[in-house]
Amino acid sequence: MARIQVVEEDLELDSPTLVEGLPGAGLVGKIAADHLADEFEMTYYAALHCDGLPQIAVYEGDSSELRPPVRLYADESMDLVVLRSDVPVSPTQVTEFASCVTGWLDANDVFPVYLSGLAEEKEGTPELYGVATGDGEAELDDAGIVPPRGGGMVSGPTGALLHRAVETGLDSVGLIVQTNPRFPDPEASRAILEHGIGPIADVDVNTDRLVEKAGEIQDAREQLAERLREMDQDGSTQAQPIRGFQ
Q1: How far is CA 139 from CA 42, 55, 91, 117, 180, in A?
Q2: pTM to 2 decimals?
Q3: Does residue 88 register a pLDDT over 80?
Q4: Which DSSP state fits 9?
Q5: What number is the average pLDDT over the span 228-235?
Q6: Which CATH code is given to the segment(s) 3-241?
Q7: Which residues pair with 128 in a beta bridge?
């Protein structure tokens, strides 16, 4: 049965913000989510048992405990939740996955921040853009985040989550950052953390370690990035412009 199973019942959250870290273009969401969870030493809070996720078990360094491949981590003091994923969502079941996640968000009054990389040439610091559903646009205005230039779309599981937010009227924002789509891009993740997640979730996150470990992150995430490149394009979260129709 598709569900989100809370494993830390003693942890209390009050209308928290969720940062989604599904793997996609540049792995910008995954790198950002992993950094948040590690930097703040967040608590393993819930397991996702949603359609579209492979039935595998993962283990982390220095621990023999097995966990599901997609998990929620939380910090009670910051009212912050992070979705960490070690696997891509099946491209044939993104609708079911989005319904599973969105139902839990709505039932628990969670404000989601969805992350996506835009395959676009960068000059200097990557540009950050924002899209919104419901009343989420006010959060973008307060953070000074502008809409993308021209029309476009967000595909993959993050696109399905945003589509479901539109359909259900859920308040949410989507952060879109310029990225190199072929390789893990810690620089793009840093831009999202500092200029997007920081002001929206009202957290002060130190990204120095993220930059210092850029080489290590590149090596650790390359295998996952390769698996994503081998998948059908619709299976990987990414933002892309729509050209010729405006």
Answers
A1: 24, 36, 30, 20, 27
A2: 0.89
A3: yes
A4: T
A5: 53
A6: 3.40.50.10900
A7: 177
For residue 119, what are the contacts with CB-CB under 8 A and spacing of at least 6? 25, 179, 180, 181, 238, 240
Helix/strand/coil (H, E, C) string of 24-65? EHHHHHHHHHHHHHHHCCCEEEEEEECCCCCCCCEECCCCCC
Find, among 18, 201, 1, the residue nearest to 105 by Cα. Answer: 18
In whole angstroms, what is the distance from residue 204 CA to residue 206 CA?
7
Whether the CB-CB separation of 22 and 89 falls below 8 Å is answered with yes
Strand 17-21 relative to strand 43-49, pairing: unpaired
Q: Which residue's structure tokens are 């072929």?
A: 182
**118, 178, 193 from 121: Cα distances, Å:** 9, 7, 20
**Domain regions of the chain by residue span:** 3-241
Query: How, if at all, do strands 70-75 and 58-59 pair?
Result: unpaired
**How far apart are alpha carbons 230 and 211 in whole angstroms?**
27
Beta carbons within 8 Å of 75's beta carbon, 6+ residues apart: 40, 42, 43
> In Å, what is the CA distance from 72 to each residue of 68, 133, 137, 245?
10, 22, 25, 39
What is the rounded (10 degree) CA torsion for 129, 133, 134, 136? -30
Asked if pLDDT for residue 58 goes beyond 50, the answer is: yes
